[in-house]
Amino acid sequence: MSTNNLSYSDQGGTDSAVEVGQETTPTSSNAGAGFGLFSVDFKKNDDLKEMLESNKESLKLEAMKRVVGLIAKGKNASELFPAVVKNVASKNIELKKLVYVYLVRYAEEQQDLALLSISTFQRALKDPNQLIRASALRVLSSIRVPIIVPIMMLAIKEAASDMSPYVRKTSAHAIQKLYSLDQDQKELLIEVIEKLLKDKSTLVAGSVVMAFEEVCPDRIDLIHKNYRKLCNLLVDVEEWGQVVIISMLTRYARTQFTSPWKEDGVFDEHSERAFYESDEEKTRDETEAKPYMMDPDHRLLLRNTKPLLQSRNTAVVMSVAQLYWHLAPKNEVSIVTKSLVRLLRSHREVQYIVLQNIATMSIQRKGMFEPYMKSFYVRSTDATHIKSLKLEILTSLANEANISTILREFQTYVKSQDKQFAAGTIQAIGRCATNISEVTDTCLNGLVLLLSNRDETVVAESVVVIRKLLQTQPTQHSDIIKHMAKLFDNITVPMARASILWLIGEYCERVPKIAPDVLRKMAKSFTSEEDIVKLQTVNLAAKLYLTNSKQTKLLTQYILNLGKYDQNYDIRDRTRFIRQLIVPNDKNGALSKYAHRILLAPKPAPVLESAYKDRDRYQLGTLSHTINTKASGYLELSDWPTVAPDLSVRDVEVIERLYILQNEPVCPESGSDAESCVEKNSSQSSEESDKSSSQSEKSSSESDSERKKRKTKTPLQKKTVKPTAKDGYHTITEHLDLRHQTTYLLLCGVIWVWLPDKDHICQNVNNQHSVLQTFSYSHWSTLCVSLFTQFCPRSLSFPLQVSGPAFVPEKSHDLLHRMTGKGLSAQYQFPRQPCLYQPTMVSVQISLTNTTDHPLEQIHIGDRSPTGLNIHCFNTIECLEPDASVTVFMGIDFNDSTQAANFQLCTKEDHFSVSIQPAIGELFLPITMTELDFRKEQGKLLGMNESSATITMAAENMTSQPISRPVATVANLGVVPSGQDNVHRFAGKTASSGAVVLVTVELRESSTALITINTEKSVMGSMLLRDLKQALAQA
Length: 1035
What we know:
- 51% of the residues lie in helices and 9% in strands.
- By secondary structure, it is of the alpha+beta class.
């Protein structure tokens, strides 16, 4: 056969060929079958190569699927690299994806062949498909050749500006690879990282923070402007990214905020003052000790990470727990307890890490885990290392109240078949006896009973622990020493025998009759004992020689002679030292004077401490904390700064656009002419804005006085004094009914954000209050557009223009039942209007009713949860008469989350805890958009930003009206005009972050419909898709 001519170096490739080929076609060679395991069938490998080099795309695709399948099984397919790389320029998207998957795996191994296709990779960086662009960059960064570093750098810069967040995410991954290849590119890579940190996509956030941690973790200044954005995006970032961001923000917070534990130190300092002190000193100290005020950004981080404690990913929960441990005030750390205990139901690997961190926490703050003590009881199915950790935690949690329960549990553990665990239990009993003096005697008696145990390991450990306990109170336990001496012959474990000998020698004066007899027995068996027992025998002989030389002098000399010729040099050295120390002669007479003080000196009692006491010097959840040694790449947490750094470094500059107001015409007072006036007004404003832009170009050097002249007021104006904004509001709204007031206020709330000259506008609108009160409700939407056109310049672009709601549900929800509220009833609903108070808030209408027979006073909003929740409360209602009702509005920033807003609804006498739970559809605002704009925005939100589902609908519902009504009922979205009868489009934006939400309902044959949702908020998109599926299926 041809294989006989193969060299040794060639056989490796042949073996890989067998590995690759064995999954493809069945063996058909009789010759190969005759040689069994040592046969090599080249046809199998050629089959895959032929398929990859064929002209049929289907064969190439099938071959690549098989090759990727082999890679997934861990088999070597590197020999196929030349055949695979030829297909990198294929026009088939599916084939190209698989080729890139293969190249990412083997580009680093086959660098020379990969370099031949580098021009193809560069062309692929411009491919219309985002997955191809990302895969090309991934392959390019996998070629570890320094010569292409400039090409990689250029590709990363271009990808960082890509319109697809997936490609930008890939560029962040490539930064780490390039940095490991050439660290001289650090400054250029930092510029790319700074750019990507400003990215608002949740897909990019985790990857760029990981690149930041790898390349420049000390450049905290890059995080300042992006800190709040990262905190707000944290809930929507992928789980892997959440872990990375939380770890980085923990380090950042320790450098930028003052310690939230300061106030405890202040109180301790005051409590230790001397009784006699002057009033001047007390006054001076009180002025210096300012109360601690938490930085709002510090609170923002704690508030936004708290929901992640409910994450299904254990790493995320552990990250949040360590963040609260290192950053939160002491009274807030306990909120992580329940989440950590929940993780104990996971796999044993997860349990091990979580228990290690709990063991460290429980040493400093026992109260956190004491209510969940039963969760740390050992189970028979637990592994030994899990049992040991639970034992450690139970020992740390022991106190006077629960020690009896814990000791009963320990009695069971001592009988365990796991010897290591039983020994650990005895050590735990010793620690409990040391820490809690009330049970010291009880523990000692229990350990003495264990000396009669049949298990040598249990007896040996009991002796060692008893020895340590007796050192604390030796005068009270001479009976225990006698009992241990009687059991000495039955104990065979060397450490236990050595411990008993040490005890008898240390307290030989308390057992003067027993100690010499024990020494006599040890002299008989000295040569057969272990080294550690021999050393303690020599020590015992020396101590007895000093205290009872009449009975033990000859025994001591005999033992010293035996030790003089022992095989172990430690014993020989110890024997020589003891002989020179205790036996006086001419040469060492001065030293023998101090023999008693040297050998019988009082020794401090040993301190039984936890093995996890010193691990708190490492950050929780890190590898260094797990192995209790500083690992490579570990970044230490800095100490809290004594003085808070400048808070303004995290402020993001907002550019305010200035413009010039033109002359405003006055509308007639008749209602019939109001509409024509509005139309004329809007047309004039557009013409005047064009004029103003041309005039501003002409008169760029014009003085300020001439510009003020153009800002003339109308000649029909009645008032000459500028009213304030407050005066203008009262003047107008007092002439309008409730419905008109609401619309007017909503309008002003939107316009007011953009107007620097508010007093001037208030004066102009004030003149028209008589006209406003005559408008019908339908005229207000037209007036809104007119006022926007009049007051806002054409140069000011509105990419997301909020429109009126397509449908307002009349359904209200119970906020407070009259029985629970002691007669106060409250209901809430969402009016689906832009909030007056802040654009990021959701407007909530609340109806309060007094069902009692007496007035209710001072109805207001009290404490809110979570702490720091952004709520604009309604003004305090001083008095609500019996059977009276009042409607109030409040704004809540739900932060694009369906998490309930909890707060207290208070009266003068009572406080009631209430909760507002928003549906996902109420977190949107409808926007105006053309079909062309819709398609453009939809093209930017593909891939991972798109979610879709197919549903079955009734045939009578496959028209425009039955489609629009359920969608508008579920979500506050605007209808987008569509040129296709079977496609219905809806557009909106999230109230808090302003992220675009696009909904498409495409009607298909067989009464089916495809629902597609495009948005950066993937979590909100999936929740909205679920509600729309249910609504349209039931329509």
